[in-house]
Amino acid sequence: MDNKSDEALDLPAGFRFHPTDDEIITCYLINKVLNISFSAIAIGEADLNKCEPWDLPKRAKMGEKDWYFFCQRDRKYPTGTRTNRATESGYWKATGKDREIYKGKSNQLIGMKKTLVFYKGRAPRGEKTNWVMHEFRLDGKLATCNLPKDAKVPF
């Protein structure tokens, strides 16, 4: 599906979508977690296990160098907690350590940011590419395991 042709975006001249890390968590991700039908004008949806990185730009709603997507984490094993990050032609490998994301001046931990690099082929002999992805997840009091079913988050 080509989202660019499906939706005509009526945005002001010079509009750029460049949210901060805490805005991604507090304005978009928490709303998506609490309401699966939530959508954002600048954020598409993609299954990153069925999409190669070079196919993502045409699935994006907007952006030239950076694209934003909601996606469900796929489990490597049905009963496990490990995340499946493989595609047909390669895999996403975590690099560095996860960064903590805090809410503005309150300094409350709200999420984590993981950096991943795409490798062509299969581990451990994959060939590193220039494709980089940042994965955001809720953490702290906003971690999905801490949210009651009828949670109403105050921002």
TrEMBL record:
Gene3D superfamilies: NAC domain. InterPro entries: NAC-dom, NAC_dom_sf. GO terms for molecular function: transcription cis-regulatory region binding. Keywords: DNA-binding, Nucleus, Transcription, Transcription regulation. It comes from the Eukaryota. Residues 11-155 form the NAC domain. GO terms for biological process: regulation of DNA-templated transcription. GO terms for cellular component: nucleus. This is NAC domain-containing protein. It comes from Trifolium subterraneum (Subterranean clover).
